Amino acid sequence: MKNTSWIFLFLSVITGFMLAGCDPVDENVTGDDIRDPYIGMWQFVESGFKSTKTQNYMVSISKDSGNSSQVLLKNFGNPGIPDISVVGIVTANQIVISSQSLSNGWVVEGNGKSTNVNNSSMSWTYSITAGGDKLYYTATANRQ
User: Fold this and answer.
1) Pick from 141, 74, 76: nearest CA to 113
2) Taking 50 as the threshold, does the pLDDT of residue 23 lie above it?
3) Torsion over CA of 43, 61, 105 and 108, rounded to 10 degrees?
4) CA 60 to CA 43: how far, in whole Å?
5) Distance CA 60, CA 134 (A)
6) Under a CB-based contact definition with an 8 Å cutoff, are residues 112 and 121 in contact?
């Protein structure tokens, strides 16, 4: 009987240490890619263009396979060459485009923030430097 008590006590202590060493599981982690809500075709309605008219154009946002926090925005700013892409960093609720030079000579930078809970619309502010002039733009982007 004495041996059984010691064995029970020993197993209880070992089990207690094993349970205390376990990491808690975060039930809110879904494993989803933070970029997923932004992937797809977006129609940009831009104001601040050189004319008094607004400009509409399509931007394709895709995942950058070389970096898990980056996206590629094809035709951002409507550079006149549809295959030009810029790189954006995705955070919890926005895409940030750090200053980058495009092959057409433009320099772009800015950010776009999701404006609703279902991520079907974004509000953008950005600048484009072309021909020595830095112009500022705002745009609304709607998922297509």
Assistant:
1) 141
2) no
3) 80
4) 9
5) 24
6) no
Two tokens, residue 32 = 């989803």
Confidence (pLDDT) at 101: 96
Question: Average pLDDT, stretch 99-115?
Answer: 96
Alpha-carbon distances of 29 from 32, 37, 61, 118, 126, rounded to whole Å:
8, 16, 24, 19, 32
H or E element in which residue 15 lies: helix 2-20
pTM: 0.74
Residue given tokens 């940030």 in the structure block: 96
Which residue ranges make up each domain of the chain?
37-143
**DSSP type of residue 26:** -
Domain 37-143 has what CATH class? mainly beta
Q: What are phi and psi of 16, to 5 degrees?
A: -60, -45
Q: Which residue do the tokens 């064995």 mark? A: 7
Neighbours of 12 (CB within 10 A): 10
